[in-house]
Every structure is written in structure tokens, then in C-alpha cells.
Amino acid sequence: MLLHGTEALKQAAAAGHALPGFVAYNLETVQGITAAAESAGRPVLIQAGAGPFKHAGREALMRLALDAAEDSAARLGVHLDHSRDLDEITACLEAGYTSVMVDGSHLPFAENVVLTKEAVRRARDHGAWVEAELGALPGDEDVSTDAVTKTATMTDPHQAAEFVAATGVDALAVAVGNVHGFTKDPVRLDLDRLAAIHAAVPVPLVLHGASGLPVEELHGALARGVAKVNVNAELRRAYLEAVHAILPAALPGSDVVSVWAAGRDAVRDAALEVIGRLIHRAEGGAV
Ligand code: 13P
């Protein structure tokens, strides 16, 4: 069923857990994420967004994700990840997306405020909630690369407070040392900065770039206001490793279905593993 509203996000924040946002590119990744949510019995966001639209086509992927969420017994939000384009945001809202991320992190502060405010206005008309980003992460959203493609700007706690008040966003993605994709060296988060942002803003925080993040860093983030965690590269890697493993057996019979099924099941298992990592009661409490 479609998961509407911010209640699940707020419940995750109150429990010291996080809602996973998993990036989906195609039928098998949508199916794998949906199966993980069903098996775990926990709310999940399918992030069928701007990057994957380039592969699958916007209409096709929007319908795929929305149909899967509507038909499932699990609570599944359908979320537009990383959009800079108000027309794209409107198209997803009109199709029935339950939330959108407007990404003005590349813009000067004042322009990010204007873009985000407009996205919030449009989302309200459709009963959807909005995530925005302040500060910028290094790394690429669709490919892990050692050659970092974007320079990082850490989120400033005072600016974050001003930004949330000025825009009315429901959730704020922050840059506190997190990186999109796998990295050569383990990532260390600036947890003091994160705590200061958490103290300064009244909305749940979002951590992008969680693939490969050491679990103590992740749990440190959950203890400091992060209530939504985005994961992509771990699912991509699981899919590719499963496909790689099964190819020798599949090739002689051109058995393409077994390859897709292996990728789908690997995404499900990787997503389930992440869901478990995000159920964490911070510092001494019970899970
Ligand atoms: P990773 O690829 O590092 O998991 O990041 C995913 C993400 O932040 C999508 O918005």
C-alpha cells in the first residue's frame, strides 16, 4: 500500500531508527525492494528518481514503482530522489508520488530557498512531503568513483535553521562528511556538526551516501536526528555480483530470466540487510 505523509518518518525519528530510501532503476530493483519491505514488515521508500529515469524513462518507471507500492501489503512510499527540475517534480506529484526531493544544493543559498519553497508549494497541493538539501556531497549518485566528481560543502547549522524556517521543508538532507557511492577509505562523519544541525532544526534529517558507511558512523547519525537513510551502491553491487555469478550457467541456454531473477533476489537480500542496520536504538536503549 502507498505510504502517505510524514508519520513513518517521525516515528522512525522518535525511535532512533531510520526509514530506508532505496534507489530503483528497473523492474527487478523495484521488485527486490518491495520484497524486502514485505519480508521485513517495515516501511520503505522506493526512490525512482531523476537518475534512473534516464535509463528506464520517466513514465515507465513512475508507473512501475507506483503499481508495485499500491499492490503490495507492505507500506511503501514512492519518492523522487535528487530532482533539480520543477516540471519533473510536478509530473511525479501528479502521478501520485508520496514525496519528492528537490535538490538545490548546487545553487547559492537564496536560490536554493526559492527553488525549494516552490517545490514545497506544489507538493502541498498533492498531499506529498518534501526533502531538500543544504550543503553538497561529493561522489556520483549512479556510479562509484574514486575520482570525486563534486566538491563537498558541509552543511552549516545556522544556515540549516534559516533554510528550514524559510522553506517549510519536511526533511533536510545534510552534508557532514558523507559521500555518494563506495569510497577507498572508510568514511568518517562529522557527528558534532550533525548534532548541532539536529539541535538547530525541527525536522528529521536525511543521510545520503550510506553505502559502505561503517556501522558505528551510521548509528552515530541515527542518534543525532537522521531518520531517513539513502542507499543505492550497495544494491547495485549486490545486483551485479549476482548476475556475474550466474552468467556462466545462464549463457549456454540464453536463460535471461534466471539472470534477472538472481539480480532481483540479490537486491532483496541486500535491502533486507540494510533495513536491519537501520533498526537501532541509539546509545544503550533497547532495539
Ligand atoms: P549510496 O550510493 O552511497 O548508497 O548513496 C545513495 C544516495 O544517497 C541516493 O540519493
TrEMBL record:
Provide the cofactor list for this protein: Zn(2+)
Keywords associated with the record: Lyase, Metal-binding, Zinc
Any one Gene Ontology molecular-function term assigned to this protein's record: zinc ion binding
Active site (UniProt) = 81
What name has this protein been given in UniProt? Tagatose 1,6-diphosphate aldolase GatY/KbaY
Positions that bind Zn(2+) 1: 82, 180, 208
| EC number assigned by the record | 4.1.2.40
Q: Does the keyword Zinc apply?
A: yes
SUPFAM superfamilies tied to this protein? Aldolase
Q: Which domain of life is it from?
A: Bacteria
How many cofactors are bound and how?
Answer: Binds 2 Zn(2+) ions per subunit. One is catalytic and the other provides a structural contribution.
Could you mention a single GO BP entry for this protein? carbohydrate metabolic process
Q: Which residues bind Zn(2+) 2?
A: 103, 133
Coiled-coil ranges (or none): none
Q: What organism does the record attribute this protein to?
A: Streptomyces canus
